[in-house]
Write a structure and sequence with these properties.
Among the domains are: about 80 residues; about 120 residues, Sandwich (Immunoglobulin-like). The protein is an alpha+beta fold. The chain is about 50% helix and about 20% strand. A hairpin with a 2-residue loop joins strand 8 and strand 9. The strands form 2 sheets. It has a 5-stranded mixed β-sheet, with no helix packed on it. Strands 1, 2, 4 and 7 form a 4-stranded antiparallel β-sheet that branches. Helix 1 runs antiparallel to helix 2.
Amino acid sequence: MNLDIHTGVVTFVVLLFVLAVIGFWSGVRLIRKARSLKFFRMRRDRMVAGWRMLGISFLFVFIALLARQFAEPVAYHFFPPTITPTLTPTVTITPTITLTPTITLTPTITPTPSVSDTPTITPTPHVPLVVEELFTSTTTPNPSAVFSPLQFATALDENFLPVEPAILFQNPVGHLYAQFTYDQMTPGAQWSALWYHGTDLVHYETSPWDGGTGGIGYSDWEPDPSQWLVGEYEVQIFIGNSWKTSGRFTVEGEPPTAVPSNTSTLTPTATPSLIPTDTRVPTQTPTPRPTYFTPTFTPPNTHAPTFTNTPITPSATHAPTFTNTPLTPSP
């Protein structure tokens, strides 16, 4: 059994007091028995033994008091104490306790929370006027509604729980979710989710609350891959104009340059469209040429009627009608 110095001293003092009590009791008994003896020598021996036991008991008491007062400091002088939880009552632990203030200096030395100036971006989170003008709900939000801290992930499972949540993402990020749990919500109350990159509002959504009074919800953003800029992002959740919770994540790696490639493909398609319009002007010039050949076809047509009409013009048919009218109708 391992005992420290303090426990050993206390045990030694207790044993001395127990021995003192036993010696005192034995001395009193011997003195009482000696008085009842008839022989002087035996009575004297018993009396001497009784007083000797009383003296020894008082000596034990004196040694116990000295041990209680001086044994522990003397033992620590020869055996320096080690840092153990049982040393808290000792005087020597106060230097070790002063080490904790030096540990508390580390929070003062760790200005990393203060250096991360992201809290200064929104010292008091508020809804911008651009988003506030889009409010449509007239339902009064419940001020006691609570939201959990946000968890960020690129996918949600069938229970709307984040798959491999993280706070550091590498480009291309793609579709990102900010998942949370909530309670004591009022259906129909206006809620908003604001996505900041630094001090810039890059995405937001606001609408009347269409969920229940408690459960799981999320806000998501799936921009063009080139819009995931490197840096720290913050998502803020509001019910009406009351801020409820926030979360931060960081994006690393250069975003893909997808937008410039799209603009370059659009410019060539615009320029060829102008060339066909120029080529259509010459296509109109061949159309007169076919009409120019039509006069060559019309002469044979005009030739044929002249050829057939000249013999058919006989006035003979005209003459018979002229002669028949005066013969029979007069009678």
